[in-house]
Specification:
Largest sheet: 7 strands, mixed
Order of helices and strands: EEEEEEEEEEE
Distance between the termini: 39 Å
Strand content: over 45%
Structural class: mainly beta
């Protein structure tokens, strides 16, 4: 059973960088052909796919967030991370990490239940 667990600060000040880590257990993030995604859900809105890092380390980003989003990984810890710079209150959301398979284009989904596995989510509030 693959498990994902998000961690990071719950409160970020505007203009600061939001940093989250997803720890994966029960499976390696380097296993072909899995893609490890970050998704968020602002209050009262639907899911927004932010980006993904592939089994081979390739990264893919939502065009609307690409300019201030970075996803990286630490294979020794079986973790992948999200950094979102220049935050505003509009970045307030529940942030999830999830696994998808096949191709990175298959990672853009409308429901968490469409992912192979997903974490419990972590609330991040951007506020001064």
């Amino acid at each position: 059973q693959v498990r994902l667990l998000e961690s990071g600060p719950g409160l970020v000040k505007p203009s600061q960088t939001l940093s989250l880590t997803c720890t994966v257990s029960g499976g390696s993030i380097t296993t072909s052909y899995y893609y490890w995604s970050w998704i968020r859900q602002p209050p009262g809105k639907g899911l927004e796919w932010m980006g993904a890092i592939a089994y081979d380390g390739s990264t893919y980003y939502s065009p609307s967030l690409k300019s201030h989003t970075s996803i990286s990984r630490d294979t020794s810890k079986n973790q992948f991370s999200l950094q979102l710079s220049s935050t505003t209150p509009e970045d307030t959301a529940v942030y999830y990490c999830a696994r998808c398979s096949g191709d990175h284009t298959m990672c853009v989904k409308t429901s968490l239940y469409e992912y192979d596995y997903w974490g419990q989510g972590t609330q991040v509030t951007v506020s001064s």
